[in-house]
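subagent[fold] <- orchestrator: predict structure for attached chain, return tokens only, no commentary.
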Amino acid sequence: MAHTLKIQPLYSFLFYYYMLYGINDLITIAKVCYYSNYVYDENRLSVLYIARPERGKTTIFNRFYSKKTLKVDDISQKTILDYAERYFQTNKYKSMYLPDFVSLANHSYSTVNSTISLINRLVEEGIKDGLFYGLEYHFTKPVKIGMFVPITPNFFIKLFKRFNDIGFLSRFVPISYEYSESTRLSILQETVVKSKTEPEKPVRISAPKIYDVVVPEDIKQALQIQLEPVLKRLNDFKVITYDKKGNRSYITPDPQLGIRLNKKMLVFLKAYAVMQNPKKPQVTYQTLSEVIRLFDYIRYPDNPKMI
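subagent[fold] -> orchestrator:
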């Protein structure tokens, strides 16, 4: 006999409230990373959303909308380079969303390596004229692209050594989350209701000008102090590996992670201020307080944030 899900109105409201609160935080993080495109003289931010299948990663990015973000389904070095040459050097787009990153698992080892290496360069130092794995491209200036990459924990762990060896992980802000039982039930109930209504419209993001945002020295110091437990949480992550003889060893995060995360969170703080007030962005202790609350989502998949 089929069972009908019944939740009392008050509990249903509370379940949905906390679920929406967590989802909105994840959308906010994506928006802030997008706004980093408009922070003067800083590298734009890229983010990894690490969560199991059916955990709303697609929903988050469907809600996060910008005419300056390009969705790329065919994840290969040739496709990404073509788009970089055609769209990003002209600033038609500023960020790239790779919804099917896990599809890389179906490609050869060399293809996976070359594609990850390309993304690795695009998100930080950028790419210039020349050959890349036998493909020739010409850019009028170095092209850098902020990336939004959803990935499953299993695929993340599978590629962890490769990610770690080339500094890939320290170039992304890692966000890992999991649904609590109450959230899962709320989503189930909400899905039944919304299937009979119009789909929710995405959050629209305006494209402001470039801002030179100044962070006071005392807020910079406070930011570093608040990042210490985040760094400890990330550095505690380990992946167990075995050699051919069955000997066990551990892979731990890149030592550069701490330095780079400090820099990225400083950019995050500036971008948050731009998102809050595009007309006159200003970093205050209130800005810092709101950003610190989002630090709880910065995790690897061994210890996801429950929402």
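orchestrator: received. Logging for downstream: The first strand starts at residue 47 and ends at 50. The domain at 9-207+298-306 is CATH 3.40.50 (Rossmann fold).
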